[in-house]
Amino acid sequence: MASQVALCCMSHSPLLHRADPGAETRKAVDTALAEARAFVDEFDPELVVIFGPDHYAGFRYRLMPPFCIGASASAIGDYGTESGPLDVPQHVADDLVGSVLEAELDVAMSERMTIDHGISQPLEVLLGSIGARPVVPIFINSVAAPLGPMRRARLLGEAVGEFVATLDKRVLIVGSGGLSHDPPVPKLRTAEAEVAEYLIDKQRTPAEQQRREQQVYDAGQEFAQGASGLKPLNPNLDNEILDLLAAGDLHRFDEFTVEWLDAHGGGSVHEVRTWVAAHAALAATGPYRTTSTFYEPVPAWIVGFAVTTAVST
Ligand SMILES: O=C(O)CCc1cccc(O)c1O
Ligand SMILES: [Fe+2]
To answer: Which residues form the active site (predicted)?
Structure first.
């Protein structure tokens, strides 16, 4: 028997539950997320495979893999998200790592993966809590330059999908991140030495974390007031991305270079790699149809916020 597979992709933001985006936007996003949650409930997944980035919370330049599969993982609990362990089915994760390596993708593996809101927020939103269902987390570096070509994220997704198809389970594939956004994240080669230390190896103290979270909140408020040096959100690009995903035109993403995306979508637009990987995973199990799409640029959250669901046909 083959698996039954469904997909939900969503943007995340550290400010999702913190900054007021305006009553109308709040209502629209809450509705879209409630519908996604209902879609997941109805599908009743036995396993969740989630592609997500982090924000120098777990992976730092001391050792930065392009991709990493977690066979055991826990969340730090940044920006008011839950902290604690995920329920990772160890043998499934082990087999997935083996299967992806067999497909000649040199994925890293972690037996102590640390995740942040990039993975925990969609788990909370879609499942109720980070530990609600068995989950295999797959990290995709989406911020720490240099990044490899988009094509590799697509191929990773494909290899994951080929494995998922063999499981004989109801599997929900999740992608977390994007779309266009340019949050205030320092860069290794231009940051002051003390700041760069946090990108390389140093963990923030609780007080430093609190300051960082306030700084990001303030940046969102400034951005929403139009008084910000951050790159504007790019709804045209975001809609183009959503159209390609819905059309199943995943090869087209191979043509988006890192430089071009950076220029048009901001420094964190590369999180759409998680969407490409998730869709490639679903596509590897058979043809699919996008069943819902929500999109709205939300400056107060510094993100072009999107939610989609899709099913195998
Ligand atoms: O550095 C962090 O911890 C979070 C950075 C950050 C800020 C606003 C919107 C985002 O999407 C984002 O990733
Ligand atoms: Fe992010």
So the answer is: 117, 181
DSSP SS3 for 125: helix
Ligand nearest to the CA of 301: 1
Cα(1) to centroid of ligand 1, in Å?
Answer: 41
Which of 54, 59, 181, 274 for mutating ligand 1's site (highest number of atoms within 8 Å of CB)? 181
Distance 14 CA to ligand 2 centre (A): 8
The pLDDT tens digits for 79-137 are 999 999 999 999 999 999 999 999 999 999 999 999 999 999 999 999 999 999 999 99
Distance CA 211, CA 199 (A): 16
ipTM above 0.85, yes or no: yes
Is residue 215's pLDDT more than 90?
A: yes
Q: How many CA atoms lie less than 13 Å away from 64 in the CB half-sphere?
A: 20
Question: Could you read off the pLDDT of 56-72 as tens digits, one per residue?
Answer: 999 999 999 999 999 99
Q: Which atom of ligand 1 is nearest to the CA of 116?
A: 3
Q: How far is the CA of 77 from the centre of ligand 2 (A)?
A: 14
Q: Which CATH number fits domain 4-312: 3.40.830.10, 1.20.1730.10, 3.20.20.120, 3.40.50.1380?
A: 3.40.830.10
| Residues carrying an active site annotation | 117, 181
Using alpha carbons, select from 116, 269, 95 the residue that is nearest to residue 204: 116
